[in-house]
Amino acid sequence: MTSLKGKIITVVGSGLIGRSWAMVFLSGGYKVKIYDNEPGQASGAITEISRKQIEELQRAKMLRGNLTAAQQLSLLSSHDDLQQALEGAFFVQVWFMVSPLNGDDFLLTQNCNWETEDKHLPDLYGTKVSHVRRRKCIISHLIVNPPYYVRLVELVPHPETLPAVMDVAYSLMTDVGQAPVRLSKEIDGFALNRVQYAIIAESWRLVQDGVISVKDIDLVMSEGLGMRYAFIGPIETMHLNAPEGMEDYLQRYTEGMKRVLNTFGPVPDFSGEPAARIVKEICELIPAEQQHLTVRRERRDQLLMELAKLKK
């Protein structure tokens, strides 16, 4: 991709996800305009980004990119006027959809919070967006918190999306240090959630059926599968776990895998007595009061920061 450094990216929405996207793009050296339709929200987001995030990351030596905190912040501006925010942009990252986005001079991508929508690709591909605009639209699904450290982003085209648009988005995401993956079509839940829900369902069933405790099933992941899944995925794991690679693995383990998979129960409904029991058990380990959850979230983020540093 021809260098786009110095070009403008507009981020529509200044909440957690919008701020995270702004920080990611700043780390790549792009000028970022952040817009919010609530007056004062965008300027407040800049204060949050500068004082509590970028400068703190620099002190922790975890600031992404080659620019200092001051250099990155000099590229950031806030806007309460949408048209002003869109002026000069080649790429627009949307968190919430606003109506006057039908121009054809920028690539439009929406971060989709699938879990809270009636339809997993709600506005970006709907009637609000013109045919011309849909050709330059994609979904960029970045939903793992905190996204500054967990770099995966799923790129999903509309059937009318131009191939070159996917290429530009993929190159841009790579350029700013994300780990983009391409989905060839829409699928309910995206890739990450579908894999995550499979793990959640079987973990829930094992606890629900009295096979293992909440504490211990989490250890199965954090001290077992998660150790290698932090740097290689399930397919590579299969390939490496047999002396002669994937074909050898399938010959050795296919029947065993199918036998175990056939014992899996129905999809849990995550309610009733089993849910009450699991809620009680996890709350005994980590009370649900905000002060306890905040401590654990800060621990999670700190450990992810250290893991991101190690993976670098």
From TrEMBL:
Main enzyme class: oxidoreductase
Domain of life assignment: Eukaryota
Subcellular localization, as worded in the UniProt entry: Cytoplasm
Any one GO BP annotation for this protein: fatty acid metabolic process
Keywords: Cytoplasm, NAD, Oxidoreductase, Phosphoprotein
InterPro entries, A to Z: 3-OHacyl-CoA_DH, 3-OHacyl-CoA_DH_CS, 3-OHacyl-CoA_DH_NAD-bd, 3HC_DH_C, 6-PGluconate_DH-like_C_sf, 6PGD_dom2, NAD(P)-bd_dom_sf
Domain 3-hydroxyacyl-CoA dehydrogenase C-terminal: 189-256
Main location: cytoplasm
MF terms (GO), sorted A to Z: L-gulonate 3-dehydrogenase activity; NAD+ binding
Domain spans labelled 3-hydroxyacyl-CoA dehydrogenase NAD binding: 9-92, 133-186
Gene Ontology CC entries for this record: cytoplasm
The enzyme's E.C. designation: 1.1.1.45
Any single Pfam family the record assigns to this protein: 3HCDH
Keyword Transcription regulation among UniProt keywords: no
Family: Belongs to the 3-hydroxyacyl-CoA dehydrogenase family.
Assembly: Homodimer.
Protein's name in the database: L-gulonate 3-dehydrogenase
